[in-house]
Inverse folding.
């Protein structure tokens, strides 16, 4: 999670909503990491976790990421939760809960749906306060700007 | 929908599950089209509609696709429905309903969720039988192979 938090801080410095993500394999080896790049790329799908999943997939080859863990500072949205299911990711670890757009523990709760054919192990709330504090500070600074 | 069906047929010839997608702007101009490329790319996120959305976004620049229509032969899954919401797509037209992995009229029904902040106009079942027949023929041929 430290590396994901570092990615989130780097994203904030680039004017991005501070979310960071890391993919590790079963030995803990880092396959990819990314921060949110929605503004930089002007691409609303360039979420940290989506970029990290795609990069890990590209780096490793093969079709799936069944033995991998995605560690991300914020609860994934529907797009990213859909990508997690598509890549058959082994484990999802996330920091802050996201009642507004989260799709794991909120809203569609995608991994509880019978139409979601792969469900990763999910561990939420890891270093939750640090992850949430980054987001809070970012939006407060933006509002005061 | 004709062009989406053509893309789906082309996908089937390449050994892909036959799904095709087209993005048009408000004047009906085609911005991008794609067939499913999951097997070709060995990428489980390379769905026809996701590829078409990304290509249209890249072709046009700007952040969103609010004035655009996605026409796809199959009801989108959670990943693609999430991408549709992220791109703030104006209208979704789809062919066959997908009770197994569909996320628009089945499962999470993503556009009915209060946590989905953009909901496109949705028209389902357009040339439904042709779209479904392509899929049925593909899976029957695969089963008999």
């Amino acid at each position: 999670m430290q590396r994901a938090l570092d990615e989130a801080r780097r994203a904030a410095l680039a004017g991005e909503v501070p979310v960071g993500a890391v993919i590790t394999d079963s030995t803990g080896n880092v396959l990819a990491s990314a921060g949110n790049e929605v503004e930089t790329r002007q691409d609303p799908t360039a979420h940290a976790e989506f970029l990290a999943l795609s990069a890990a997939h590209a780096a490793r080859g093969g079709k799936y990421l069944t033995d991998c863990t995605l560690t991300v500072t914020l609860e994934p949205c529907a797009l990213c939760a859909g990508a997690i299911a598509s890549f058959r990711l082994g484990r999802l670890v996330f920091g802050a809960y996201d009642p507004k757009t989260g799709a794991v523990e909120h809203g569609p709760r995608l991994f509880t749906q019978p139409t979601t054919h792969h469900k990763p192990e999910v561990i939420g709330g890891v270093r939750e306060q640090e992850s949430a504090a980054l987001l809070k500070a970012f939006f407060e600074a933006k509002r005061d700007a």
In short: Chain B touches chain A at residues 42-45, 53-54, 57, 61-64, 77-83, 85-88, 99-103, 106-110, 113-117 (CB under 8 Å). The beta strands of chain B are 20-24, 30-35, 69-74, 91-96, 121-123. The first strand of chain B starts at residue 20 and ends at 24. The radius of gyration of chain B is 14 Å.
